[in-house]
């Protein structure tokens, strides 16, 4: 009895002692915005210099913000928005589903200025124009059902609620390209020109995108009204990433000594290769720390970062495999089934034979060998397999395929697919040749 109690106590002690690396892991989350954003002074000032016109009672131009993922776009826009609302007075809504009942936080306004409402929307979450307008309407006290109304009515309701008071509403549409993927750019057209119809309120739009081609797809009229001002976020280099990560690492870790000197430069170097992505640097560091904690290491060392890199890369591949089209999954599954019989590489012809059998069993449409060869090249480009063209002398040319991923893990992921699950007992005929 006594010893049971003792082992229970020590069970938690062990786990608690384990947490020796991190004191506050929260600050490593993507959603955490630090008070200072090193190496983004230029973008912060550019944004502020457009928004400053609200102090003169003018409506700021619409702004289009672009740059690759993890370059600090979301963090900078929220940072500047918060500072603005704090200074001039108004409401700051930075989460997509923040409670609408938040009490307004008005500060004395100098004459001629409007209260500012800063509303952040992530179009990955609020991904149709209907939902976007319904959500916006909610901020101004309307409850619009999330489906069912004609779009005109949703727009009119949103519009009239917005125009009830004198105010300047800054609407941030983060990942605005996602909105377009789900429909037309009508809502962008309307929102970026709404000021000509409003009588009391004023609106400025800040559109953010990671997709550098996005602007090419916009209606030229939307393009000119959204992009009145443009702010570009270039990728960070390794030294900048090291500063950014260093700031967060100091906040996250119990003591500076738990991080070996080589760790931050290595995380930064890896993330710099990954198009200068601060998010990747943070992930590498967090996962490296978790690995160190799990093995009860007192410090994070270089080896943990390398393992973290591998793990993150594997997770990425699992995600990619999960979302492959059905036919591509069948081709990949065929390669996996053949892998153990052909250590020196699988040929396109062998893949095609197995693929054809699987199609008959699943059942699926059978594509041509030419098409399957293209799919193999696509899988190669995704880094899931390596396909090398080899000459077979007078037998022509074929591809020699090797899997570039942990086979057992990917096999399990594929077998979660219903069609693949149905053919999972299939054994390639090649085995009979061997026995
Ligand atoms: P984006 O919106 O461009 O994809 P984010 O603003 O979400 O990038 O940044 C990704 C992560 O990196 C966030 O956790 C953010 O706080 C952090 N980050 C990016 N730039 C900086 C910076 N200059 N200083 C501190 N943290 C940064
Ligand atoms: Mg972002």
What does this structure look like?
The protein is α/β, with parallel strands linked by helices and 435 residues long. Helices cover 49% and strands 12% of the residues. The chain is built from 19 helices and 9 strands. The strands form 2 sheets. A 6-stranded parallel beta sheet has the order 2-3-4-5-1-6, sandwiched between helices. Strands 7-9-8 form a 3-stranded antiparallel beta sheet. α12 crosses α13. It starts with a helix and ends with a helix. The site of magnesium ion has 3 residues, from α3.
Question: What compounds are bound to the protein?
Answer: adenosine-5'-diphosphate, magnesium ion
Q: Catalogue the unreliable spans.
A: 99-108
Using DSSP, what is the number of strands?
Answer: 9
What is the overall shape? globular
Helix-strand category: alpha/beta
* String of helices and strands: HHEHEEHHEHHEHHEHHHHHEHHEEHHH
Spatially, the strands of the biggest sheet line up as 2-3-4-5-1-6
Oligomer: single chain
């Amino acid at each position: 009895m006594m010893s049971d109690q003792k082992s229970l106590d020590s069970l938690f002690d062990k786990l608690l002692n384990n947490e020796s690396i991190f004191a506050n892991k929260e600050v490593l989350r993507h959603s955490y915005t630090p008070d200072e954003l090193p190496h983004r002074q230029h973008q912060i000032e550019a944004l502020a210099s457009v928004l400053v016109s609200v102090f003169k009672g003018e409506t700021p131009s619409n702004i289009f913000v672009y740059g690759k993922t993890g370059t600090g776009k979301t963090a900078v826009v929220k940072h500047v928005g918060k500072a603005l609302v704090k200074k001039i007075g108004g409401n700051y809504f930075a989460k997509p589903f923040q409670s609408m009942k938040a009490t307004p936080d008005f500060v004395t306004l100098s004459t001629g200025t409007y209260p500012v409402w800063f509303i952040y929307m992530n179009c990955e979450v609020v991904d149709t124009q209907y939902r976007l307008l319904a959500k916006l309407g909610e901020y101004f006290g309307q409850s619009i059902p999330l489906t069912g109304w004609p779009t005109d009515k949703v727009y009119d309701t949103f519009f009239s609620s917005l125009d009830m008071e004198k105010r300047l509403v800054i609407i941030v549409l983060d990942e605005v390209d996602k909105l377009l993927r789900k429909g037309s750019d009508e809502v962008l057209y309307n929102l970026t020109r709404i000021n000509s119809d409003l009588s009391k309120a004023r609106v400025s739009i800040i559109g953010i995108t990671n997709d550098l081609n996005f602007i090419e797809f916009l209606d030229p009229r939307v393009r000119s009204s959204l992009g009145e001002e443009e702010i570009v976020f270039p990728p960070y280099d390794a030294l900048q990433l090291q500063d950014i990560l260093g700031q967060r690492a100091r906040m996250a870790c119990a003591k500076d000594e738990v991080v070996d000197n080589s760790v931050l430069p290595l995380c930064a170097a890896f993330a710099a290769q990954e198009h200068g992505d601060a998010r990747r640097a943070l992930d590498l560091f967090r996962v490296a720390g978790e690995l160190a904690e799990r093995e009860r290491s007192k410090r994070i060392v270089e080896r943990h970062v390398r393992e973290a890199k591998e793990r993150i890369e594997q997770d990425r591949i699992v995600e990619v495999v999960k979302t492959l089209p059905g036919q591509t999954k069948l081709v990949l599954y065929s390669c996996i089934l053949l892998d153990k019989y052909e250590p020196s590489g699988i040929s396109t012809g062998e893949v095609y034979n197995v693929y054809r059998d699987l199609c008959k069993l699943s059942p699926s449409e059978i594509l041509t060998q030419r098409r399957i060869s293209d799919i193999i090249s696509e899988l190669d480009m995704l880094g899931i397999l390596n396909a090398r063209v080899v000459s077979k002398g007078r037998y022509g040319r074929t591809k020699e395929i090797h899997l570039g991923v942990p086979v057992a893990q990917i096999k399990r992921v594929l077998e979660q697919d219903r069609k693949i699950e149905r053919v999972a007992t299939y054994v390639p005929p090649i085995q009979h040749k061997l026995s």
